[in-house]
Amino acid sequence: MTATLTRYSCERTFSHLQCKECGATYEPKAMHVCTRCFGPLEVAYNYDTIASRVSRASIEAGPHSIWRYRDFLPVETEDYIDVGTGMTPLLKASRLARRLGIKRLFIKNDAVNMPTLSFKDRVVSVALSRARELGFSTVACASTGNLANSTAA
Q1: Which end of the chain, N or C, is less packed with Cβ atoms under 10 Å?
Q2: What does the CA dihedral 140, 35, 14, 79 come to, rounded to 10 degrees?
Q3: What does the pLDDT profile of the chain (153 residues) look like in tens digits?
Q4: Comparing C-alpha atoms, which of 21, 5, 117, 145 is closest to residue 69?
Q5: Rounded-to-integer distance, Cα 69 and Cα 80, Å
Q6: Is 125 within 8 Å of 72 (Cβ atoms)?
Q7: Mean pLDDT in the chain?
Q8: Contact 86, 137 (CB under 8 A)
Q9: pTM as predicted
Q10: 69-113 per-position pLDDT tens digit
Q11: Are 88 and 108 spatial neighbours (Cβ–Cβ below 8 Å)?
Q12: Which of 90, 84, 137 is nearest to 110 (CA)?
């Protein structure tokens, strides 16, 4: 299932990739490691752009999935992969909070995430949407289980 949101056709919310180790910057293209030091690359966001268009109301008006937070995700396409991933419940853990000496504690229950009941569904939804956006038609992964299940779904 895919969805289209027209409010995202303006300036993207991320600007470049940046090496976590040496700070080198790269265009946001299909790469994951720095060519200078082999350090991991992270997405750099345009926080002013995000702040100018994100509000509680805009988030609440979004789809009932991870894609309501699209401005915070490194995907430009309006043709993202949406199979209902996200929106898992927060469970109040009062006894554990007391035991830890804190007032309130909530635990995210990703065991009910869609489509495979794994927290990895979030990452895969974004990664596959970005891969398709970059022109990939085939993906592969190394996994002992949950990642492969989520990717296949």
Answers
A1: N
A2: -30
A3: 333 333 444 578 999 999 999 999 999 999 999 999 999 999 999 999 999 999 999 999 999 999 999 999 999 988 999 999 999 999 999 999 999 999 999 999 999 999 999 999 999 999 999 999 999 999 999 999 999 999 999
A4: 5
A5: 12
A6: no
A7: 92
A8: no
A9: 0.83
A10: 999 999 998 899 999 999 999 999 999 999 999 999 999 999 999
A11: yes
A12: 90
Strands (E), 8-137: 14-19, 25-26, 41-45, 80-81, 90-92, 106-108
Q: Which of 59, 58, 66, 108 is nearest to 83 (CA)?
A: 66
- Check if the beta carbon of residue 75 is closer than 8 Å to that of residue 130: yes
Q: Using the structure block, give the residue that is written with the tokens 């949407």.
A: 129
Residue found by looking up tokens 């635990």 in the block: 107
